[in-house]
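Hello Y.,

Per our agreement to keep a running log of every chain we model this quarter, I'm adding this entry. I've kept the format consistent with earlier entries: sequence first, then predicted structure.
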Amino acid sequence: MEKIHTADGDVLMEVSPLIDFRSKNNIQSALQIVDTPLHAKNKHGQHKDKQVELSPIHDFSAKLRQPSIINTLKEYVRWQVKWRDAYIEGKSIEDILEQAPNHAPLSVNLDVTTACNYCCDHCVDMDILNTGIRYEHEQLKNSLSTLIDRGLRSVIIIGGGEPTVYPGFADIVKHLKARDIQIGVVTNGSRMDRIAEIADVLTKGDWVRLSLDSGDNETFRAMHKPVSKKVTLDWICSQIPDIKKINPDFQIGYSFIVVWRDCEANDTEIIDNTGEIIEAAQRAKQYEFDYISYKPFLTRAEENNAEVVNLTQEEQSIDNILKKIRTSVNKTKQLESEKFSVIESTNLRVLENGSYKDFIDQPSTCHMQYFRQVLSPLGVFNCPVYRHVPQALLGGKHEYEGEELFKETQKNTLRLIEAFDASNECRNVTCLYNHANWLIEDLIRHPEKLDALEVSEERHDYFL
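Predicted structure for the entry above:
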């Protein structure tokens, strides 16, 4: 086992020797071969067409091919080609780390706090809530500045707790917007006064998404268990029109995690809200939300703590549940207008049509951990699915503060790209980055395709 250290000398992680596909004898044959950026072969050797189920917001390969950032993608591919050639020559990754591109992740999920004022039974982060572990505020800002200087484009403030209860929430948002960073915020809606405080600095392309998951007050209170009795679904929604008046340029979304009968998390059965899909859309439109988004319930896998879709029911039961969900979501489409949209997550689409099995067919290497990461008071992690999971740890909570720490954390990222076997670790994850990973893997195996790589439309969307 190889020990990887932080800049301070502490052991960060231990990794096994490079995964099997690096074998000099097998490097040309062990990888699953991708024929074109739009087609791939699965493990059975069958071609799979471009994953048309991808929502535009989840078409990460197109985002990486935008004119403004495609060169970052190409530089990473060329470095990976160089590294694989070097390995065949008998070199180690340590020999060529200094030749790696000097880029920060393009996008990060920023967990500003572990504190939360709800007691949701279905919370996937329950084990880390209200631990008292926190950032040093100025060090966090310094870390973000370092990342911005190295190419960071977007920040999603989310997860690990409720971001608006963090005392420095507004200061962080304003710090990022002063550097022209795209901002997304995921909030439970309990502190909309904090959203009103930062509304005037948000710009077109920014968004705030409220995790509401219900259509009436009773279900909302039962699912989320807010500490304050004044927090109801009506109370939260009633504040949206006033915030839209402050600034109509950014989008406000109503998030609805669809929970069906017998879904469990944290050894607790979660309330079935499938009967409120339509009611929630009606409410969202009434209160001037820009959209409502539907996604399936996720829980954590016991073997590796990854976030996965729960499919424990009998197949016939699941089919009936999905038909009910589909019928309701179709009816919500009738509410769409120029000012209101209904968004289905990729996870929900592929769960319905059965193609989710394509999305769990992962390449051995997850390249996307180079382009997007998670910053948390618990440390820096390689993926939103694995926030606070030890095998995904890249460094400490302030490990991007300053040039020296940035370089060390980037080296740890490249080491973990080699050590983290996504085909095993993510074998049960319906991965939204699956298509982008296969595209990048294909380019590394066939670098001659880089010159002909199609540039996508510039969407100025850098959320990954």
